[in-house]
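Example record

One chain of 337 residues, shown exactly as stored in the release files.
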Amino acid sequence: MCIILGIESSCDETAIAVVKNGNQILSNIIASQAKVHEKYGGVIPEIASRIHIENISMVLKEALQTANITMEEIDAIAVTQGPGLIGSLHVGMICAKTLSMSYNKPLIAVHHIAGHIYANEFVDELKFPLLALVVSGGHTELIYMKEHYHFEVISQTQDDAIGEAYDKVAKVLGLPYPGGPHIDRLAKNGDNIYTLPAIKTENPFDFSFSGLKSSVLQLISRLQRTQQQYRIEDIACSFQERALDELIKRVDLAINHYEVSHVVLAGGVAANSRLREKMEQYMAGKSQKLTIPPLYCCTDNAAMIASAGYQAYLRKLFSKYDLAAKPSLNISKDNKI
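Predicted structure tokens for this chain:
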């Protein structure tokens, strides 16, 4: 038996979890700052860091109490090293180092995206070779894994991440931050009646959403200029269908180019109901296995960090105390974190 305590503070959630054997959640406590940042239309880094400091001791106490466990029973401390906001990452890093030194427990650095991928372990055992579609506010990429803890980025976004595009389109439509859930909700009552351009990139595997976002802005401007009536539900639906089709298109390219046994979704946008539906439709009848993570593990949390940390623990990928937060940490460097 192996029990990992995971710490996640890369953005605006202060999260600590206790996970046994990589896939059994004993506790998963999250203190969200969403309501605080909502009025600003986005996360304010300085405010996020200060609230992390205020919350982290309380979250740690609750995580241990909920798991009914003591620090002495923990086998290792896994913490998000990056990517993320430097101040937010630093708070989690200091907490992890303090616990590691105080209780003489191994310290494990985890890449935030590795955590999102390993969130799928809570519902399915990962099979290799594996293709992960990573979609969030800061990331849109395809990651190929030949085995555990081997990460190869085979495509990424050339500009905006898909979650960022959702937020920007939502803002133009007058919707609150974060915009993704609101567009997903409105699109259910809309029709895909507006033709938006397909995305073109030099590398056919790569993503780009800046042009799509601009096309939506131009569409709204044209409709307003010509005094045409329109429903924001139809614009939300048209944008979402085009954006998600671009994701599916590149998954299809990758599956036909690489040897793939298992396809997984990862990241906050994996909670999008239409993406989950379209992925299931696309994968129906295919030989590859599809896993979609539970909703509670799509957004930032510490259980996913502990799950990834478990695989690092098995491979003795321990960190020294000079470990530092890295806002632009590269997941594929040296094929390990």
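Notes: Strands lie at 3-8, 13-20, 24-32, 76-82, 107-111, 130-135, 140-145, 152-156, 262-266, 289-291.
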